[in-house]
Amino acid sequence: MISSAVEEVARCRGQACRHDAACRGWDRFRAHRPAIVAAAVMATLAALAALAPWITPYQPGAIDLHHVAAPPNPAHPLGTDELGRDVLTRIVWGGRISLAAGVSAMLIAATVGIAYGAVSGFYGGLVDSLMMQAVDFLLSFPAIVVLLILASAYHGSVLNVILYIGLFGWMGMARLVRAQVLSLRERDFVVAARSLGASNLRILVRHLVPNALAPVIVATTLGVAGAMLIEAMLDFLGFGVSPDTPTWGNLMTNAESYFTTAPLLAITPGLVITTAVVCVHFIGDALRDALDPYANRSGR
User: Which residues on neighbouring strands pair with residue 241, listed in sequence order?
Assistant: First the structure.
Protein backbone atom coordinates (compact mmCIF):
# COMPACT_ATOMS: atom_id res chain seq x y z
CA MET A 1 0.00 0.00 0.00
CA ILE A 2 2.84 2.37 0.86
CA SER A 3 4.62 1.51 -2.39
CA SER A 4 1.45 2.26 -4.36
CA ALA A 5 1.14 5.65 -2.65
CA VAL A 6 4.79 6.45 -3.38
CA GLU A 7 4.38 5.46 -7.00
CA GLU A 8 1.23 7.60 -7.29
CA VAL A 9 3.01 10.64 -5.84
CA ALA A 10 5.95 10.11 -8.17
CA ARG A 11 3.57 9.76 -11.12
CA CYS A 12 1.79 13.02 -10.28
CA ARG A 13 5.05 14.89 -9.88
CA GLY A 14 6.28 13.46 -13.17
CA GLN A 15 3.13 14.59 -14.93
CA ALA A 16 3.52 18.12 -13.52
CA CYS A 17 7.16 18.28 -14.62
CA ARG A 18 6.25 17.01 -18.09
CA HIS A 19 3.50 19.61 -18.36
CA ASP A 20 5.91 22.42 -17.47
CA ALA A 21 8.51 21.09 -19.90
CA ALA A 22 5.87 20.84 -22.65
CA CYS A 23 4.84 24.46 -22.09
CA ARG A 24 8.44 25.66 -22.27
CA GLY A 25 9.05 23.53 -25.35
CA TRP A 26 5.98 24.95 -27.10
CA ASP A 27 7.15 28.47 -26.31
CA ARG A 28 10.55 27.74 -27.89
CA PHE A 29 8.91 26.18 -30.93
CA ARG A 30 6.67 29.22 -31.42
CA ALA A 31 9.73 31.47 -31.20
CA HIS A 32 11.17 29.67 -34.25
CA ARG A 33 9.40 31.76 -36.92
CA PRO A 34 10.62 29.78 -39.99
CA ALA A 35 9.26 26.60 -38.41
CA ILE A 36 5.84 28.19 -37.87
CA VAL A 37 5.74 29.22 -41.54
CA ALA A 38 7.00 25.79 -42.58
CA ALA A 39 4.31 24.07 -40.49
CA ALA A 40 1.66 26.25 -42.14
CA VAL A 41 3.00 25.38 -45.60
CA MET A 42 3.08 21.66 -44.83
CA ALA A 43 -0.43 21.82 -43.38
CA THR A 44 -1.59 23.52 -46.59
CA LEU A 45 0.07 20.87 -48.78
CA ALA A 46 -1.44 18.09 -46.68
CA ALA A 47 -4.89 19.68 -46.79
CA LEU A 48 -4.72 20.13 -50.56
CA ALA A 49 -3.65 16.51 -51.01
CA ALA A 50 -6.40 15.22 -48.71
CA LEU A 51 -9.08 17.31 -50.46
CA ALA A 52 -7.80 16.66 -54.00
CA PRO A 53 -10.91 14.77 -55.21
CA TRP A 54 -13.12 17.73 -54.30
CA ILE A 55 -11.01 20.78 -55.15
CA THR A 56 -9.27 19.86 -58.41
CA PRO A 57 -11.13 20.84 -61.60
CA TYR A 58 -10.01 17.76 -63.56
CA GLN A 59 -9.36 14.09 -63.00
CA PRO A 60 -5.63 13.35 -62.74
CA GLY A 61 -5.78 10.96 -65.69
CA ALA A 62 -8.03 13.08 -67.94
CA ILE A 63 -6.36 13.39 -71.37
CA ASP A 64 -6.87 16.33 -73.75
CA LEU A 65 -4.92 15.72 -76.97
CA HIS A 66 -5.94 19.14 -78.27
CA HIS A 67 -3.85 20.87 -75.55
CA VAL A 68 -0.64 18.84 -75.34
CA ALA A 69 2.20 20.51 -73.38
CA ALA A 70 0.19 23.73 -73.33
CA PRO A 71 1.61 26.74 -71.49
CA PRO A 72 -0.15 28.17 -68.43
CA ASN A 73 -3.57 29.58 -69.24
CA PRO A 74 -6.80 30.36 -67.34
CA ALA A 75 -8.12 26.83 -67.86
CA HIS A 76 -4.81 25.23 -66.83
CA PRO A 77 -2.90 27.56 -64.45
CA LEU A 78 0.29 25.45 -64.67
CA GLY A 79 -0.26 24.20 -68.20
CA THR A 80 -0.66 20.62 -69.37
CA ASP A 81 1.74 17.71 -69.79
CA GLU A 82 2.68 15.62 -72.82
CA LEU A 83 -0.77 13.98 -72.87
CA GLY A 84 -2.79 17.11 -72.20
CA ARG A 85 -3.33 16.33 -68.51
CA ASP A 86 -3.66 19.28 -66.14
CA VAL A 87 -0.35 19.77 -64.30
CA LEU A 88 -1.86 21.51 -61.26
CA THR A 89 -4.34 18.69 -60.76
CA ARG A 90 -1.62 16.05 -61.00
CA ILE A 91 0.64 17.91 -58.55
CA VAL A 92 -2.16 18.13 -56.00
CA TRP A 93 -2.99 14.46 -56.47
CA GLY A 94 0.69 13.55 -56.42
CA GLY A 95 1.00 14.97 -52.93
CA ARG A 96 -1.35 12.26 -51.66
CA ILE A 97 1.22 9.56 -52.39
CA SER A 98 4.44 11.50 -51.90
CA LEU A 99 3.49 12.90 -48.49
CA ALA A 100 1.85 9.68 -47.33
CA ALA A 101 4.85 7.63 -48.42
CA GLY A 102 7.29 9.83 -46.50
CA VAL A 103 5.26 9.86 -43.29
CA SER A 104 4.26 6.17 -43.42
CA ALA A 105 7.78 4.95 -44.17
CA MET A 106 9.23 6.86 -41.22
CA LEU A 107 6.47 5.64 -38.90
CA ILE A 108 7.46 2.08 -39.82
CA ALA A 109 11.14 2.88 -39.32
CA ALA A 110 10.49 4.57 -35.98
CA THR A 111 8.29 1.73 -34.69
CA VAL A 112 10.81 -0.98 -35.55
CA GLY A 113 13.78 1.12 -34.42
CA ILE A 114 12.25 2.05 -31.06
CA ALA A 115 11.36 -1.56 -30.20
CA TYR A 116 14.69 -2.96 -31.34
CA GLY A 117 16.87 -0.26 -29.79
CA ALA A 118 14.98 -0.23 -26.49
CA VAL A 119 15.38 -3.99 -25.99
CA SER A 120 19.04 -3.85 -26.97
CA GLY A 121 19.91 -0.98 -24.66
CA PHE A 122 17.86 -2.27 -21.72
CA TYR A 123 19.28 -5.77 -21.53
CA GLY A 124 22.84 -4.89 -22.56
CA GLY A 125 25.60 -7.47 -22.41
CA LEU A 126 25.57 -10.28 -24.93
CA VAL A 127 22.05 -9.43 -26.12
CA ASP A 128 23.08 -5.86 -26.88
CA SER A 129 26.28 -6.98 -28.60
CA LEU A 130 24.51 -9.46 -30.88
CA MET A 131 21.68 -7.08 -31.75
CA MET A 132 24.05 -4.24 -32.58
CA GLN A 133 26.24 -6.52 -34.68
CA ALA A 134 23.14 -7.40 -36.66
CA VAL A 135 22.47 -3.68 -37.17
CA ASP A 136 26.07 -3.12 -38.27
CA PHE A 137 25.73 -6.01 -40.71
CA LEU A 138 22.59 -4.52 -42.24
CA LEU A 139 24.16 -1.07 -42.42
CA SER A 140 27.10 -2.52 -44.36
CA PHE A 141 24.84 -3.05 -47.36
CA PRO A 142 24.44 -0.09 -49.75
CA ALA A 143 20.81 0.75 -49.02
CA ILE A 144 20.17 2.58 -52.29
CA VAL A 145 21.43 -0.35 -54.37
CA VAL A 146 19.32 -2.84 -52.39
CA LEU A 147 16.29 -0.56 -52.70
CA LEU A 148 16.74 -0.36 -56.48
CA ILE A 149 17.06 -4.14 -56.75
CA LEU A 150 13.94 -4.76 -54.68
CA ALA A 151 11.97 -2.02 -56.41
CA SER A 152 12.92 -3.33 -59.85
CA ALA A 153 11.71 -6.81 -58.88
CA TYR A 154 8.47 -5.77 -57.16
CA HIS A 155 7.74 -2.25 -58.41
CA GLY A 156 4.35 -0.77 -59.14
CA SER A 157 2.86 -0.81 -55.63
CA VAL A 158 2.75 2.18 -53.30
CA LEU A 159 2.70 -0.16 -50.30
CA ASN A 160 5.86 -1.91 -51.50
CA VAL A 161 7.71 1.39 -51.86
CA ILE A 162 6.66 2.44 -48.34
CA LEU A 163 7.76 -0.89 -46.88
CA TYR A 164 11.12 -0.78 -48.68
CA ILE A 165 11.92 2.70 -47.39
CA GLY A 166 10.66 2.00 -43.87
CA LEU A 167 12.41 -1.34 -43.45
CA PHE A 168 15.72 0.13 -44.61
CA GLY A 169 15.49 3.18 -42.37
CA TRP A 170 15.10 1.72 -38.89
CA MET A 171 18.75 0.88 -38.15
CA GLY A 172 19.82 4.42 -37.38
CA MET A 173 16.71 4.88 -35.24
CA ALA A 174 17.57 1.73 -33.29
CA ARG A 175 21.05 3.04 -32.54
CA LEU A 176 19.64 6.33 -31.36
CA VAL A 177 17.11 4.70 -29.02
CA ARG A 178 19.71 2.26 -27.70
CA ALA A 179 22.02 5.12 -26.77
CA GLN A 180 19.19 6.91 -24.98
CA VAL A 181 18.13 3.80 -23.06
CA LEU A 182 21.73 3.05 -22.05
CA SER A 183 21.97 6.52 -20.52
CA LEU A 184 18.60 6.23 -18.76
CA ARG A 185 18.46 2.69 -17.43
CA GLU A 186 20.55 3.43 -14.32
CA ARG A 187 18.77 6.68 -13.44
CA ASP A 188 17.07 7.04 -10.08
CA PHE A 189 13.53 6.81 -11.43
CA VAL A 190 14.32 3.46 -13.10
CA VAL A 191 15.96 2.13 -9.94
CA ALA A 192 12.94 3.28 -7.93
CA ALA A 193 10.52 1.58 -10.34
CA ARG A 194 12.52 -1.63 -10.16
CA SER A 195 12.63 -1.52 -6.36
CA LEU A 196 8.83 -1.17 -6.32
CA GLY A 197 8.52 -4.42 -8.24
CA ALA A 198 7.88 -3.09 -11.75
CA SER A 199 8.46 -5.67 -14.48
CA ASN A 200 11.00 -5.19 -17.23
CA LEU A 201 8.21 -4.61 -19.76
CA ARG A 202 6.61 -1.95 -17.57
CA ILE A 203 9.95 -0.19 -17.04
CA LEU A 204 10.59 -0.17 -20.77
CA VAL A 205 7.12 0.95 -21.84
CA ARG A 206 6.22 3.35 -19.01
CA HIS A 207 9.59 4.83 -18.04
CA LEU A 208 12.44 4.34 -20.53
CA VAL A 209 10.80 4.66 -23.95
CA PRO A 210 8.78 7.83 -23.13
CA ASN A 211 11.92 9.52 -21.79
CA ALA A 212 13.88 8.51 -24.89
CA LEU A 213 11.34 9.84 -27.40
CA ALA A 214 12.55 13.45 -27.75
CA PRO A 215 15.47 12.75 -30.12
CA VAL A 216 13.42 10.07 -31.84
CA ILE A 217 10.69 12.60 -32.69
CA VAL A 218 13.29 14.93 -34.17
CA ALA A 219 14.98 12.14 -36.14
CA THR A 220 11.63 10.88 -37.43
CA THR A 221 10.58 14.35 -38.54
CA LEU A 222 13.84 14.91 -40.39
CA GLY A 223 13.62 11.40 -41.80
CA VAL A 224 10.32 12.21 -43.48
CA ALA A 225 12.18 14.57 -45.81
CA GLY A 226 14.68 11.86 -46.69
CA ALA A 227 11.93 9.31 -47.27
CA MET A 228 10.12 11.72 -49.60
CA LEU A 229 13.32 12.24 -51.58
CA ILE A 230 13.94 8.49 -51.83
CA GLU A 231 10.37 7.90 -53.01
CA ALA A 232 10.76 10.65 -55.61
CA MET A 233 14.11 9.18 -56.69
CA LEU A 234 12.63 5.71 -57.15
CA ASP A 235 9.78 7.17 -59.19
CA PHE A 236 12.16 9.31 -61.25
CA LEU A 237 14.33 6.28 -62.07
CA GLY A 238 11.27 4.24 -63.00
CA PHE A 239 11.46 1.85 -60.04
CA GLY A 240 8.66 3.34 -57.97
CA VAL A 241 4.92 3.28 -58.45
CA SER A 242 3.29 2.94 -61.85
CA PRO A 243 4.21 5.82 -64.23
CA ASP A 244 0.52 6.56 -64.72
CA THR A 245 0.07 7.23 -61.01
CA PRO A 246 0.61 10.92 -60.23
CA THR A 247 3.45 11.42 -57.75
CA TRP A 248 5.91 14.28 -57.60
CA GLY A 249 8.71 11.98 -58.74
CA ASN A 250 6.70 10.59 -61.66
CA LEU A 251 5.80 14.10 -62.80
CA MET A 252 9.50 14.93 -63.11
CA THR A 253 10.17 11.68 -64.97
CA ASN A 254 7.44 12.34 -67.51
CA ALA A 255 8.71 15.89 -68.05
CA GLU A 256 12.31 14.90 -68.75
CA SER A 257 11.87 14.91 -72.54
CA TYR A 258 10.14 18.30 -72.49
CA PHE A 259 12.58 20.21 -70.30
CA THR A 260 13.65 22.59 -73.10
CA THR A 261 10.25 23.07 -74.74
CA ALA A 262 8.05 23.01 -71.59
CA PRO A 263 10.34 23.54 -68.57
CA LEU A 264 7.44 24.10 -66.16
CA LEU A 265 6.60 20.41 -66.39
CA ALA A 266 9.82 19.61 -64.52
CA ILE A 267 10.36 22.83 -62.57
CA THR A 268 6.95 22.87 -60.85
CA PRO A 269 7.07 19.40 -59.22
CA GLY A 270 10.74 19.99 -58.40
CA LEU A 271 9.88 23.19 -56.57
CA VAL A 272 7.08 21.45 -54.67
CA ILE A 273 9.42 18.65 -53.54
CA THR A 274 12.10 21.17 -52.55
CA THR A 275 9.58 23.27 -50.63
CA ALA A 276 8.26 20.25 -48.73
CA VAL A 277 11.75 19.00 -47.84
CA VAL A 278 12.95 22.43 -46.68
CA CYS A 279 9.81 22.90 -44.58
CA VAL A 280 10.28 19.52 -42.91
CA HIS A 281 13.88 20.43 -42.06
CA PHE A 282 12.77 23.74 -40.52
CA ILE A 283 10.20 21.90 -38.41
CA GLY A 284 12.79 19.32 -37.37
CA ASP A 285 15.25 22.02 -36.32
CA ALA A 286 12.58 23.74 -34.23
CA LEU A 287 11.60 20.44 -32.61
CA ARG A 288 15.24 19.81 -31.75
CA ASP A 289 15.36 23.12 -29.87
CA ALA A 290 11.94 22.62 -28.28
CA LEU A 291 12.70 19.11 -27.03
CA ASP A 292 16.23 19.84 -25.84
CA PRO A 293 16.35 18.41 -22.29
CA TYR A 294 19.13 20.79 -21.25
CA ALA A 295 17.00 23.75 -22.31
CA ASN A 296 14.11 22.32 -20.30
CA ARG A 297 16.33 21.93 -17.29
CA SER A 298 17.66 25.48 -17.45
CA GLY A 299 14.18 26.87 -18.04
CA ARG A 300 15.10 28.72 -21.19
Answer: 156
Angle at 94 between CA 93 and CA 96, to 5 degrees: 70
Asked whether 143 and 164 are in contact (CB, 8 A), the reply is: no
Residue 198 — φ and ψ, nearest 5°?
-65, 140
Residues 195-221: tens digit of each pLDDT: 888 888 888 888 888 888 888 888 898
**Positive or negative: CA dihedral 291, 294, 299, 300:** negative
Residues whose CB falls within 8 Å of the CB of residue 35, separated by 6 or more in sequence, listed in order: 29, 282, 283, 285, 286, 287
In order of 58, 101, 138, the CA distances from 237 in angstroms are 27, 17, 24
The DSSP bridge partners found for residue 156 are 241
* Cα distance between residue 61 and residue 115, in whole Å: 41
Task: Write the DSSP assignment of 180-218 as a string of letters.
Answer: HHHHHTTSHHHHHHHHTT--HHHIIIIIIHHHTHHHHHH
Summary mean pLDDT of the chain: 83
All structural domains of the chain, each given as residue ranges with its CATH number in brackets, are 61-275 (1.10.3720.10)
Q: How far apart are CA 85 and CA 244, in angstroms?
A: 11
Lowest mean pLDDT among 145-159, 165-179, 209-223: 145-159
Nearest Cα residue to 220 out of 164, 167, 170:
170
Residue length of the chain: 300
